[in-house]
UniProtKB/TrEMBL annotation, chain A:
Location of the region described as Disordered in the Swiss-Prot/TrEMBL record: 1-28, 316-451, 470-504, 684-723
The organism of origin for this protein: Gopherus evgoodei (Goodes thornscrub tortoise)
Keywords of the record: Nucleus, Phosphoprotein
Gene it is expressed from: UTP14A
Name of a matching Pfam family: Utp14
Main location: nucleus
Source organism, top-level taxon: Eukaryota
Bias (Basic residues): 711-723
Lineage: Eukaryota, Metazoa, Chordata, Craniata, Vertebrata
Protein name: UTP14A small subunit processome component
Family (UniProt): Belongs to the UTP14 family.
Basic and acidic residues bias spans: 1-11, 364-382, 477-492
Acidic residues composition bias: residue spans: 387-397
Compartments reported by the entry: Nucleus, Nucleolus
GO cellular component: small-subunit processome
UniProtKB/TrEMBL annotation, chain B:
Organism: Gopherus evgoodei
Protein name: DDB1- and CUL4-associated factor 13
Short name of any one Pfam family annotated for the protein: WD40
MF-aspect GO terms: nuclear estrogen receptor binding; ubiquitin-like ligase-substrate adaptor activity
Localization (cell): Nucleus, Nucleolus
Domain Sof1-like protein: 354-440
WD repeat windows: 62-104, 278-319, 321-362
Pathway: Protein modification; protein ubiquitination
Domain of life: Eukaryota
Stored Gene3D superfamilies: YVTN repeat-like/Quinoprotein amine dehydrogenase
Any Gene Ontology biological process: oocyte growth
Signal peptide start and end residues: none
CDD domains per record: WD40
InterPro entries, sorted: Sof1, WD40/YVTN_repeat-like_dom_sf, WD40_repeat_CS, WD40_repeat_dom_sf, WD40_rpt, WD_repeat_DCAF13/WDSOF1
């Protein structure tokens, strides 16, 4: 269809030269075609060549318009958009747009292009080294050659695989190991174990595991519980426990007697044996510490008396030689024993008031306040350093030791199942906490009056004092009634040494002055002797001062210095520059002064300099003048890598030597920038080096330290050699 | 009451063995050690003085060549072996520990222009004035055997330099063009040219091994890529570059030794400006070699001295010279970063310490610690004038000293003139050009 259209458009142009009938015939033909096309049947008709022509088209085109030039746009314009000719149209369009092909580049030019491309490519490829290069330039330390073999610890598997058993012994051991198929390397299970593991199915294994877990958990709970129980300190609890246990044992015994008389007999024998042992021992005989203390208290306390009696009864019962029927009584006793301590525990708080042990606990605050209130003679305080005071101090310490020993003897190793145990323990604890130094129950009234030690962190006596203490201990052992003796003694000494007693007051705060000196009755009559000594010393000092004063009577050094400083300050101030010239712009001559305006105009005031460094130091003159001698050693300008003089100064100020730095720091500070190994060839850097290379800077000083760790001690003073 | 008794742990004060030093308990309280800065300053001063006292860098002179030493090569596997080629075509292999020649061979007629070892150290290559490239075995022939090269390649043109690839069996020669050769073949696998010129030296990049750098006599430095078989870029300097050396630790950095007494360090990515200009020599710089750590390089000059430059500093830290040392043609830094070898016109190879005052041999740990401490102190106080003065002081031969003075005066005059011109011309009309860019004429793409 389109092809036909194309021809149709051509016809009017070509037809102009042809004859009229031909034209008519053609028109007719066209009409026929149009009609046929209406029918919808596509018909291609080739034009026929009707006459001979010189120009024969190979495409069967008629050469009617041979002399005419065919113009492409004409052809294109006639093409309607249609599917079959779209490609052709496109191609033709392209042809239309294309310009003529340029001449090829000259050889030089083309080479240049190639070079440029190659250069760009290469420089891009080379630029990948940029990072490595920068890193190496900045690196704190570079270790050459770059390829360092790793000096790490080889994994055990490697060592073992490379190792072979050589000696017979080794071989034997190896054969043994192999027989049992003991794993030497990584797998921790033997083949047997693995096999057993494999034998179990997964569910089974899980079940088993769960069971095991449960058992383990239970066990751990039980253990924890037992531990907790074991830790319980309550006596009552233990008593109840024991009671329960004995009851249970009894029940069991009953059952046993019914079921198995022989076993019951055996059990009975055991019980008997324990009874015999009890008889052999001294338990329940009122001989223990607890019992003795109870004995003392029994006089005043009904409960104590009761407890003692209880114990005695028990003893009697235990030591009685009665074979079988004692069981019931025992049981009763047990119950009695169980009841008893409860009552004691109840009573205990009420007992506190009456207990002389409890009375001796004074409040430390009161003591301290007493200390502060204590009026101190200045002279006495001055004379503190004398040795006499230490004597009394030692005695008091000694006393303290003795008393503690006593209390320990009394309170130590309390009887476990005694009735008043809890009470005693309480007492003991209290004793320890207060470090009460009561001599004993014999003198209960004296308790509160005795000197007490307050626990403090500071050491109260020096080594010499302790030595002296050791010497005196033997002599003073026999002196039983401590407090009074020592007090007397101290008083005596105080009198003899001349008012030394009061000195101990500030030195050892633990002694309650009020208590010790008991008001006026203990006021010490201090003779004037130490005061005179003091006066003498003072006089000496005054004399010396006087002598100095006399010697320098004439000159007032301080004033001189101040004057000098002022002078220096003035000299250091920048001077005003006077540029006033008389006569310019006004009358000059003798007796004529330049005008005030002019003077003001031409007097150049200096910029006030930086504040003097000795501005706030009245006793110092700091010369801020440049020292020429020192200047020869000073840096004139901030050197290149530093940007500010402070940076530079800081770099200089930090010492690097071993005198100021620890060994490690010294090694790090002085690690050389480049480390090479003698006799090793350093190869040019390669791509393999470049990647581990990145770690080199981070290695930093540690690499430098590596070669000499074992000699670290030898670096103590290396500079000695250089000097 | 508790009696406290002084008690000490015997581990703290009892030595394990008799050889152990007594442990001295130290108190680092700064109040007990006053004047730390002055004391350290004095220590630093002493350390600096001692460094100068102990600075005796010259170790040995290897004599045996019968003409000036023209080129040298390091053995890639053995630190004690070094190869040298002389102007009479003789190649000698030296043992540095014994300081003697272990093998001599007549390699070429005329100069041995270049010598390089294979990366595995089994053979080496020489190029000479007789237009040949020869490969030799490192081991000499057996008794009575003849010194015969493994291969000989007869070229069409003169070869002026040779360098071996760092990893592959490929080497590059230079002359009229840069040729890349396979060891197995008699013709180059590719020839790289850029203009017609005589190229004086070619060097493979040790890191990016396919890169090459060459310097030609028309004052330029050309970079090549072996894989793409094309030149990459060319930079033209004021004067001719004699040789160049790549930094073995920084892939894109190379340093060129120039006729104008300077060395220029370039970043191959930014060729329009050098990274650093190293100026101290007073005559043409003939050779340069990097230390294997890539932090320093050594340069040999026509002014009969060898200088060591830090890569990032414009001036040398060390200058080596002896009375008898003539123009130094070639220089190498050994692969263990310890020694420097220089071959000079007067037929000798000299062995120097890279660190002039370093103590050779095994150091006791205390010694090493002391050395490190002294080094640190010197570094810390390096800016102080007294210390700087001592540390910088070097004796120079009179010609070099005078020449340096003259150069300084010239430079100052030039600077002053420029200053004056700038002062008397329109602001901005005379732009300030930094030293790093001043010597670069052009960069050709």
């Amino acid at each position: 269809m389109a092809e036909e259209d194309l021809f149709r458009s051509d016809h009017p142009v070509s037809a102009s030269e042809d004859e009229g009938d031909d034209n008519e015939e053609r028109r007719h033909h066209r009409l026929l075609e149009a009609v046929s096309s209406l029918a919808g049947r596509k018909r291609r008709k080739l034009t026929e060549r009707t006459e001979a022509s010189l120009q024969v088209s190979e495409f069967n085109l008629s050469c009617e318009g041979a002399r005419e030039k065919l113009v492409l746009p004409e052809l294109l314009g006639s093409i309607r958009a249609s599917s079959s000719l779209g490609i052709v149209k496109k191609q033709l369009n392209r042809v239309k747009q294309k310009k003529s092909v340029e001449l090829p580049l000259s050889k030089q030019e083309s080479e240049r292009v190639v070079r440029e491309a190659a250069y760009n490519k290469t420089s891009k490829a080379v630029a990948k080294w940029e990072q490595v290069v920068l890193q190496n330039r900045r690196a704190e330390q570079l270790v050459f050659p770059l390829k360092q073999e790793q000096m790490g610890v080889a994994p055990i598997e490697e060592v073992l695989t490379s190792w072979k058993a050589r000696t017979p012994l080794e071989q034997e051991i190896f054969s043994l190991l192999h027989k049992t198929q003991q794993p030497v390397t990584d797998p921790l299970l033997t083949p047997l174990e693995e096999a057993s593991l494999r034998a179990m199915s997964l569910e089974e294994a899980q079940l088993r595991r769960a069971e095991l877990q449960k058992a383990r958990a239970l066990q751990s709970y039980y253990e924890a519980k037992a531990r907790r129980k074991k830790k319980i300190k309550s006596k009552k609890y233990h008593r109840v426990l024991q009671k329960g246990r004995s009851r249970k044992a009894l029940k069991e015994f009953e059952v046993l007697r019914k079921l198995d008389p022989e076993a019951a007999l055996k059990k009975l024998e055991e019980i008997e044996k324990s009874r015999i042992e009890e008889r052999m021992g001294l338990r329940h005989q009122n001989k223990g510490k607890w019992a003795r203390s109870r004995a003392i208290m029994a006089k005043y306390n009904l409960e104590d008396r009761k407890a003692m009696q209880e114990q005695l009864a028990r003893n009697k019962e235990l030591t009685q030689k009665m074979p079988m029927e004692s069981e019931g009584e025992e049981e009763g006793d047990m119950a009695g024993e169980g009841l008893l301590p409860d009552s004691i525990n109840e009573v205990q708080p009420s007992m506190d008031g009456a207990n002389p042990w409890m009375l001796g606990k004074p409040s430390s605050e009161a003591k301290d306040s007493g200390m502060q209130e204590d009026p101190k003679d200045p002279r006495e305080s001055v004379a503190q350093e004398d040795a006499g005071s230490e004597m009394s101090e030692e005695e008091i310490l000694l006393q303290d030791f003795e008393q503690r020993r006593c209390t320990r003897q009394q309170t130590g190793s309390p009887e476990p199942e005694g009735a008043g145990e809890a009470e005693e323990a309480h007492l003991f604890v209290e004793l320890l906490s207060n470090v009460q130094t009561g001599p004993g129950v014999e003198q209960p009234a004296q308790g509160p009056e005795e000197p007490l030690l307050s626990e403090q962190l500071g050491r109260r006596c020096t080594l010499e004092e302790i030595d002296a203490l050791g010497q005196e201990e033997g002599a003073e052992e026999q002196e039983r009634p401590w407090p009074t003796r020592t007090l007397q003694k101290s008083e005596e000494e105080g009198c003899a040494g001349g008012g030394h007693t009061a000195k101990k007051a500030p030195k050892q705060k633990m002694i309650n002055l009020q208590a010790v000196l008991a008001g006026e009755s203990h006021v010490i009559q201090c003779p004037a002797q130490p005061v005179s000594v003091q006066n003498e010393q003072e006089d000496e000092a005054a004399d010396q001062r006087l002598v100095i004063k006399e010697a320098f009577a004439g000159d007032d050094v301080i004033a001189d210095f101040l004057r000098e400083k002022h002078k220096v300050e003035q000299a250091g101030k920048p001077q005003a520059i006077n540029l006033v010239l008389p006569g310019w712009g006004e009358w000059g001559g003798t007796g004529l002064q330049p005008s005030a305006r002019k003077r003001k105009r031409f007097l150049i005031k200096p910029v006030p300099g930086p504040p003097r460094r000795d501005q706030h130091l009245p006793h110092v003159i700091i010369s801020q003048q440049r020292n020429i001698l020192a200047a020869a050693h000073q840096v004139n300008e901030v050197p290149f890598p530093f940007e500010h003089h402070q940076q530079f100064e800081q770099s200089i100020r930090a010492p690097v030597g071993p005198t100021w730095n620890t060994q490690r720091a010294f090694q790090k500070l002085t690690a050389p920038r480049i480390l090479t190994q003698p006799g090793h060839i350093i190869q040019p850097i390669s791509a393999e080096d470049a990647s581990p290379q990145s770690t080199v800077p981070t290695r930093g000083g540690s690499a430098a330290l590596a070669p000499t760790p074992q000699h670290s001690r030898h670096h103590q003073r290396p500079h000695k050699k250089a000097r | 009451m508790r009696v406290k008794v002084l008690s000490r742990n015997p581990d703290d004060y009892i030595r394990e063995t008799k050889q152990d030093l007594q442990r001295v308990p130290r108190n680092y309280d700064p109040a007990l050690h006053p004047f730390e800065v002055p004391r350290e300053y004095v220590r630093a001063l002493n350390a600096t003085k001692l460094e100068r006292v102990f600075a005796k860098p010259f170790l040995a002179s290897l004599d045996g060549h019968r003409d000036g030493v023209n080129c040298m090569a390091k053995h890639p596997q053995s630190l004690s072996t070094v190869l040298s080629g002389a102007c009479d075509g003789e190649v000698k292999i030296w043992n540095l520990t014994k300081r003697e020649c272990i093998r001599t061979l007549q390699a070429h007629e005329g100069f041995v222009r270049g010598i390089c070892t294979r990366f595995c150290g089994t053979s080496f290559f020489t190029v000479g004035d007789d237009k040949t490239v020869k490969q030799w075995k490192m081991e000499g022939p057996g008794y009575g055997g003849k010194e015969e090269p493994l291969h000989t390649i007869l070229g069409k043109t003169l070869y002026t330099g040779i360098d071996h690839h760092w990893k592959e069996a490929v080497f590059a020669t230079c002359g009229h063009q840069v040729d890349i050769w396979d060891e197995q073949r008699n013709s180059p696998i590719c020839s790289l040219t850029w203009g017609v010129d005589s190229i004086s030296s070619v060097k493979f990049n040790p890191i990016e091994t396919h890169l090459l750098g060459s310097c030609a006599s028309d004052r330029n430095i050309v970079l090549y890529d072996m894989r793409q078989s094309t030149p990459l870029k060319k930079v033209i300097l004021d004067m001719r570059t004699n040789t160049l050396c790549w930094n073995p630790m920084e892939a894109f950095i190379f340093t060129s030794a120039n006729e104008d007494h300077n060395l220029y360090t370039f970043d191959m990515r930014f060729l329009d400006s050098s990274v650093m200009v190293h100026m101290d020599h007073v005559s043409a710089v003939l050779d340069v070699d990097y230390s294997p750590t890539g932090k320093e390089f050594v340069s040999a000059s026509f002014d009969k001295s060898v200088r060591i430059f830090p890569v990032d500093k414009g001036h040398s830290r060390e200058v080596y010279h002896t009375k008898r040392m003539q123009h130094v043609i070639t220089v190498k830094w050994t692969s263990d970063n310890k020694y420097i070898l220089c071959g000079s016109d007067e037929m000798n190879i000299r062995l120097w310490k890279a660190n002039a005052s370093e103590k050779l041999g095994v150091l006791v740990p205390r010694e090493r610690a002391a050395m490190n401490y002294n080094q640190k102190l010197k570094e810390k106080f390096q800016h102080h004038p007294q210390i700087k003065r001592i540390a910088r002081h070097r004796h120079l031969p009179k010609p070099i000293y005078n020449q340096a003075k003259e150069l300084r005066i010239m430079r100052e005059a030039r600077r002053r003139k420029e200053l004056n011109r700038r002062k008397h011309s329109k602001p901005g009309s005379l732009p300030f050009v930094s030293e790093k860019k001043k010597h670069i004429v052009a960069v050709v793409k």
